[in-house]
Specification:
Elements: E1 10-15, E2 21-27, E3 39-42, H1 55-59, E4 65-69, H2 87-101, E5 106-111, H3 113-124, E6 129-135, H4 143-152, H5 162-173, H6 182-192, E7 193-195, E8 201-203, H7 211-214, H8 226-230, E9 237-242, H9 250-259, E10 263-268, H10 280-290
Parallel strand pairs: 3-4, 3-5, 5-6, 6-9, 9-10
Antiparallel strand pairs: 1-2, 2-4, 7-8
Helix pairs in contact: 2-3, 5-6
Length: 296
């Protein structure tokens, strides 16, 4: 939001193949970059477009940016069938968005789930992806981190005030962001929670997004994602890793960087899964990646 109260972005709504109304924030970008492939910002499992409220305007200095809200998050409608809360459905939803916007080629910045969707887009839409940032995710995921996420996703109640909610978020995520102060927790909480009509603070997603994780082996990295990762070959690729991550091990990140010639690895100090990409180290690495993207 600008100081004069005008938004930096506009709302865009589109429909999924199964009739779910979906939402994204569109940052127009400069007029002289109208022909440049836009950047799609794809959030993590329980997150929404507000995750990119600082990064997206920064990127939009150079080209159009579309911050996507997956079904069941933010202003996107909840799915009737909770078993559609899976990566392949999100891929279909993003392809429907690209068709709606008449976008052929694009880049992605994907956090966690968003990074998995990026890899699957590369594998299923050959030639369309021109660059990618994988934020604390890859083809090898740590089971301990997956279990931690499965334990809390879809649980929790409401809080009476933003301060109460921020304290609850800090208790849950203290090990992820050990250097955070209360103002940092408030910023994070306002990105991930919403105010209900009854005046309570709740998480801003459909709790049924956890349903696929509850089935046997749900959410486990049981399939080989390396072919999808290798589909990113030949394009500018940034692998971001939180120094304290329990999802993307350092060894796995180093293997990813070694696997593809154009992959670069950057580690964000003092944070776990996942960096917010507001960190100076993350922004610097993303700027380097941005400079490698094709202009048309």
């Amino acid at each position: 939001m600008r100081g004069d109260g005008r938004r930096d972005w506009s709302d865009h709504y589109w429909w999924s193949l199964d009739g779910v109304r979906l939402h994204a924030r569109v940052y127009a970008g400069p007029a002289d970059a109208a022909d440049a492939p836009p950047i799609l910002c794809l959030p993590g499992l329980a997150r929404n477009a507000r995750d990119f409220e600082q990064l997206a305007p920064h990127l939009a200095q150079y080209r159009r940016v579309v911050a996507v809200e997956f079904r069941g998050r933010g202003e996107s409608a909840y799915a009737k069938d909770p078993m559609t809360y899976v990566p392949l459905t999100y891929v279909q939803d993003v392809i429907a968005l690209l068709d709606d916007l008449k976008v052929d080629r694009f880049a992605t910045v994907g956090t966690s789930l968003g990074g998995l969707v990026s890899m699957l887009l590369a594998a299923t839409q050959p030639g369309r992806l021109v660059g990618a940032v994988l934020n604390d995710v890859g083809p090898e995921l740590e089971l301990a981190g997956l279990e931690r996420i499965r334990d809390y996703i879809g649980s929790g109640g409401s809080q009476p005030t933003w301060i109460h909610a921020a304290r609850a978020v800090s208790e849950l995520n203290g090990a992820v962001y050990p250097g955070y102060e209360i103002h940092d927790w408030l910023r994070l909480t306002k990105r991930t929670h919403r105010l209900t009509a009854e005046g309570r603070i709740v998480t801003d997603y459909d709790k049924q997004i956890a349903a696929p994780l509850r089935v046997p082996n749900g959410g486990d990295a049981g399939i080989d994602l390396w072919p999808a990762y290798r589909a990113l070959d030949g394009i500018p690729l940034l692998v971001l890793r939180g120094e304290l991550s329990d999802i993307l091990a350092r060894g796995a990140a180093e293997k990813m960087a070694a696997e593809l010639p154009r992959a670069r690895l950057a580690e964000v100090p003092g944070v776990g899964h996942a960096p917010t990409m507001d960190e100076a180290e993350a922004v610097a690495a993303i700027d380097g990646w941005l400079a490698e993207l094709p202009a048309t």
